[in-house]
Specification:
CATH topology of the largest domain: Rossmann fold
Helix content: 25-40%
Order of helices and strands: EEEHEHEHEEEEHHEHEHEHEHEH
Number of domains: 2
Structural class: alpha/beta
Distance between the termini: 29 Å
Strand order of the largest sheet: 4-3-5-6-9
Shape: globular
Radius of gyration: 24 Å
Number of strands: 14
CATH architecture of the largest domain: 3-Layer(aba) Sandwich
Length: 304
């Protein structure tokens, strides 16, 4: 009936083994994201970023839109590629061009330029190191954020006018029923986070310091995600994270740091103790939503 076979292999004194095969077809993946209009398809892209993982992730997202990407981790190599290729879009990492003593060649760069920046809300800078910036992409980014940047670069708008934040917030509906902990001693920041997660169905427990969070970790049931301020009284977020990572029952919970600065030593410290990422204050809703969608699994009951 299913087009397969079934057989039995038996050996006296040892037993029998039943073997069967069935024919099946791989289900086509359901498209989760809109595609740009045909005029915006099949573009050539240059990605300039010091992180290979970031470049790979962005290239994979752009491939969904039928974009062909070339990646590089240095400005020098980028200028060589720009001199020999005509790119429609160039994604440039903010930190890379700020630290580099060599500028991107504007003479040969005819593509539209998007600036990528980590951790903090992006500024409205339009010229950096003589580079004309036409769009901004915050890290970590999602497919929807990349889609919106493409539309922005070419002056188009989504079919249904909605802000990126609203679209992201609607996506969080799939996370209804999940429970997250927030350790943050600033009441304004607490209120901001609650506002960002309002009407998503996500349960939020607030704590004023790391010790209070640890005390409640075993009494609040399943915890799916933790936002951890690193600078708190009694016990800071670094020490609280170290204690959580020591406990096998909780060391797989994703922990995202809330940082008051972007100093390299602070960021490196979050990586060293096993945090999964960081958000710099003031808290950017899009970045928070991105981390939630990346690390929190939808509850199975929501799909029933």
């Amino acid at each position: 009936m299913m087009g397969g076979i079934i057989r039995v292999e038996s050996e006296y004194g040892k037993g029998s083994r039943f073997i069967f095969t069935i024919e099946s077809h791989q289900q086509k993946e359901k498209r989760r994201y809109r595609l740009p209009s045909k005029s915006l398809m099949n573009k050539s892209v240059l990605i300039i970023d010091g992180s290979r993982d970031t470049s790979k992730s962005l290239a994979e997202m752009l491939a969904y839109f039928h974009y062909e990407s070339i990646t590089t981790s240095s400005v020098k190599e980028a200028n060589q590629k720009i001199a020999t290729h005509q790119f429609d879009i160039v994604f440039i990492d903010y930190d890379l061009i700020k630290k580099c003593d060599q500028d991107i060649s504007q003479k040969n760069c005819t593509g539209r330029v998007a600036l990528m920046k980590s951790g903090v809300a992006l500024s409205n800078e339009t010229i950096i190191n003589d580079i004309h910036i036409q769009a901004h992409l915050s890290k970590p980014f999602t497919q929807q954020m990349v889609f919106s940047v493409i539309l922005e670069l070419y002056g188009e708008k989504p079919a249904q006018e909605a802000s990126l934040k609203d679209l992201q917030k609607k996506d969080l509906q799939s996370l209804k029923g999940n429970h997250i902990f927030v350790a943050e001693d600033n009441k304004i920041n607490q209120a901001t986070i609650l506002s960002m997660l309002k009407d998503t169905g996500i349960q939020v427990s607030l704590f004023d310091n790391g010790q209070d969070l640890l005390d409640q970790l075993t009494t609040k049931g399943s915890i799916d995600f933790i936002l951890m301020d690193t600078d708190m009284p009694i016990m800071d977020g670094y020490e609280a994270t170290i204690q959580i990572k020591k406990n096998k029952a909780y060391n797989n919970i994703p922990i995202i740091a809330l940082l008051a600065s972007t100093l390299k030593k602070d960021i490196d410290r979050t990586v060293k103790i096993g945090m999964n990422g960081y958000i710099c204050k003031p808290i950017n809703a899009n970045i928070l939503y991105s981390f939630l969608l990346k690390y929190v699994e939808p509850k199975t009951c929501n799909g029933v």
